[in-house]
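As described in the Methods, two query proteins were run sequentially through the folding procedure within a single session, without resetting any intermediate state between them. The first query and its resulting structure tokens are shown here.
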Amino acid sequence: MLRTLFSPRALVLHLLAIGALVACALLGRWQLGVFEDSGKPQAAQDPAPVAVATLTQPGRHMTSDAVSRRVTASGTFDASRQLLVAGRDGGAWLLTALDLGDGTAVPVVRGWVSGADDPAVGAGAVPTGTVTVTGRLRPSEATDSVRRGSERLPEGQVLTVSSAELVNLWRGVKLRDGFVVAAAQSPAPAVAVKPVAVAPPTEPGGFSWRNLAYAAQWWIFGLFAVFMWWHFLRDMVRSRTAGREHKPEPAAA
């Protein structure tokens, strides 16, 4: 039997079976990867920047299509309305109200700072005069009452950028919903801060079930290749065994 299993014909059959099995496994995994990638969020259109006033209003929630849109906002920063958003990448976000000059203001994350002693935090470091901020619009963050009750923050710090909370902290200002994460400012601030990265808008992906079916088909082909290998090998062994059984015995002397 071993001679049959390691005969030249059988070795060719072994190699063909191994090659077919490996190829089918890899092709099936490739199709499965295509299926998995199809369900991931896909990059959406990223239109040119628009004025922040066109996408957000005071007392009204911003729409989902406005999330992560590029916007511009022109006005003056209010140094008396500035906070640190704690617990952000080992530091804090520097959040300042930007008076748009129309009776409303929008919170602006000017950048990331290491802590309250950072040079950019002082009131003297807040840019004066009219500035134009370019960045991405983000929705108001949800507050965590449990976490907020367990953590006592120093005065001037918050855990989230929440419009509902900012209205109570910055009394007398008419805030627009959401906030802007600044990517650039003109003119540039005297004390630079590290920009906070915000991903461009995405849209939900749709699973490509056809690719999942293709993956299953390739794996079935692999199993069929194994079955055919076993089938041909069995026939080879049976044929050789039958040939030995029917071989005439030599005549007695």
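Immediately afterward, the second query was submitted; its sequence and tokens are:
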Amino acid sequence: MRKGFDWAAYVRGFHDATPGVTEAVLSRTLAGGHTPYRWLARAVSPRAQLIVDLACGSGAMSRELALPGRTVLGVDLAESELRLASERSEGPWVCADGLALPLADASVDAVVSSMGAVVIQPAHALFTEVGRVLRPGGVFAFTAPTVLPLHPRDLVTSLGVVGRLRSLPRFPGPTEITGYKDALIGTGLRKVEDARERYHFEVATPQDAEVIVSALYLPTTSARRRAAAVEWLVDRTTKEGPVRISLAMRRFVVLKQPVATRGPEL
């Protein structure tokens, strides 16, 4: 990837062209019967009443978190995604930058983000802004793609796809971030969990092959190469039946530290 690449323009163009494609994949990506959306939702207390779904896309995570008496505010910069989200549920939805949230200090119980942390960069600025809007004791939970805990056998199909693409999927931020601890310094947040899970997406039809390739960030890959990857997957399903693509996900949870109180003076 060349230095100075305009990631903001690429991400904006990607989501304008393919709204809902991330949800189309993750809603069918399973581990033990649950999706990455359900896994992320489990990190949020049922007592949380006001939640921000950051980089909400077409609203799948917001719908996963919906409960009677709870407000889930979906925030995204992609108007095309927000239009689709508003067609699927009432919201509320807000078009805003994740680094400048239109919310008061210490005003929300939880912030979640499915895949947003590898797009909204830099990490320290993201943590700082989330720490600003969270109430003491509130949590920020997010998921991001990773490599572990994939087994070598999981990689066979993925490597076949990558071989046809001749490039790896890329993100504005790294997916194996070792610097999260440093990025938390001075934000008022502390890590309480860093967990990993292995999921699988089944490719059974040409449409499945098209959607999984379309959902990848491939800023340096030509349309011809993407088509070759789709064709290879379709050929495999024709010869072998459904093909399973394994995806590893990471769930990271941080806590807004309560404000220290002084005891009574003697």
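The chain has ten helices and seven strands. We note this only descriptively and draw no conclusion about the first query from it.
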